Amino acid sequence: MTEQADQATPEQVRPTGGTNRIASLDFIRGLAVMGILAANIVAFGQPMTAYMYPDAFTVPHSAAEDWMWVVQFVLIDSKMRGLFTLLFGAGMVLFLERATARGQGRWLQVRRLFWLGMIGLVHFFFIWRGDILFLYACAGLAALLFVGLSRRKLLVLGLIGYFGGALFYTGILGFLPMMEGSQEAAFAEMAEDLESEKQTDLADGRYETQLIGDGDYGAWVNHNISEHGPEIGFVLMLFWFETLPLMLVGMAAYRYGLFDGGVEQGRQRKWGWALWIVGTALTIPVALWAKDGGLTYYGTLAAMSAWSMVPRLFAILGLLALLALWGQHVAGPLAQRVSAAGRAAFTNYLGTSVLMMLVFHGWAGGLFGELGRTELYLVTLATWAIMLLWSKPWLERFRFGPLEWLWRCLTYWRLFPLRR
């Protein structure tokens, strides 16, 4: 990239994504942002640990809700985040192509990721600790190092990285349930350490429940900064084994034409169904194993973070292929509203976190720790309705979602018109 290309004139500096959108990307992104809420709702309304471990709920978790855990594990958990990550990689290539065509360089993408990371840090510390934006920004910067590779190399490198991460996670976390509560002399010390870590995690959840329930927002933010700030580096170290490889696969999928008819439809449909069925079928035994073991702390951790990694990759890729087909011809009022939610996915993602604060924090709705899994799913349905109701009318009047517009202004360091 030449220096001249990197330094675009003011007339050249304008958003790259305002027109000629790829319909399937918006459609999949809309479904993914809705699905992410279905996965995250437990961690919004209950202690963070309750996301994987039902005994961390502050209210009883019924036998029927144990089965809901199984269904969520099989169909939703990590699948929607995986789709979102693949789309992020595809979107990076699309953005770079359009920026380059306008004489702008890779540094524009760097600035774009920088501001995403800054927004992610605000989200993490001041709104909700389950943020993925900072992770995406850092992994995206790393992905830029590989963007010049061929689509085949991107695909192979991404798959190797992902399977390597699966082996890494399985080696570290997959066998912890065997140690939990062990009375054997060889494992007694390790079992004691594991129990101590578990109790520390649960105690942190109880303390956060108290802070949120009391409506002490300042103390809660201070707790996030002092106690959970160091987790950012730890999360980056671990999740790069999943996030960066999936971004590379998403880049390859875009270049293969998966989203805009570049792959023969019958072949794409066949592979999509095959991958999704195989991935789902292999995930079911993992879920049932965790349930039969009593949904223990380390059993659920191993199931989610180790043994399900390979099966869910198949399911994610299958979903991507099928949804990319369906999304190429968006028709009907509901599908159009889903696509509109995808066009405003950034706003819907962060806006959901703000809305959940208003619902659950003690200084507002005060429902944190009060609702069980069933009631939390009802909150999810209501929030989906809000996403679908506001996104389409807004985008009929304005060029971008509110946060999409802000992100563009920060990226180009110019104030762009918002109204159509």
Automatic annotation (TrEMBL):
<feature type="transmembrane region" description="Helical">
    <location>
        <begin position="232"/>
        <end position="253"/>
    </location>
</feature>
<keyword id="KW-0812">Transmembrane</keyword>
<feature type="transmembrane region" description="Helical">
    <location>
        <begin position="108"/>
        <end position="126"/>
    </location>
</feature>
<feature type="transmembrane region" description="Helical">
    <location>
        <begin position="376"/>
        <end position="395"/>
    </location>
</feature>
<keyword id="KW-1133">Transmembrane helix</keyword>
<feature type="transmembrane region" description="Helical">
    <location>
        <begin position="273"/>
        <end position="290"/>
    </location>
</feature>
<feature type="transmembrane region" description="Helical">
    <location>
        <begin position="73"/>
        <end position="96"/>
    </location>
</feature>
<protein>
    <submittedName>
        <fullName>DUF418 domain-containing protein</fullName>
    </submittedName>
</protein>
<feature type="transmembrane region" description="Helical">
    <location>
        <begin position="154"/>
        <end position="176"/>
    </location>
</feature>
<feature type="domain" description="DUF418">
    <location>
        <begin position="253"/>
        <end position="414"/>
    </location>
</feature>
<dbReference type="Pfam" id="PF04235">
    <property type="entry name" value="DUF418"/>
</dbReference>
<feature type="transmembrane region" description="Helical">
    <location>
        <begin position="31"/>
        <end position="53"/>
    </location>
</feature>
<feature type="transmembrane region" description="Helical">
    <location>
        <begin position="346"/>
        <end position="364"/>
    </location>
</feature>
<feature type="transmembrane region" description="Helical">
    <location>
        <begin position="302"/>
        <end position="326"/>
    </location>
</feature>
<keyword id="KW-0472">Membrane</keyword>
<feature type="transmembrane region" description="Helical">
    <location>
        <begin position="132"/>
        <end position="149"/>
    </location>
</feature>
<dbReference type="InterPro" id="IPR007349">
    <property type="entry name" value="DUF418"/>
</dbReference>
<dbReference type="InterPro" id="IPR052529">
    <property type="entry name" value="Bact_Transport_Assoc"/>
</dbReference>
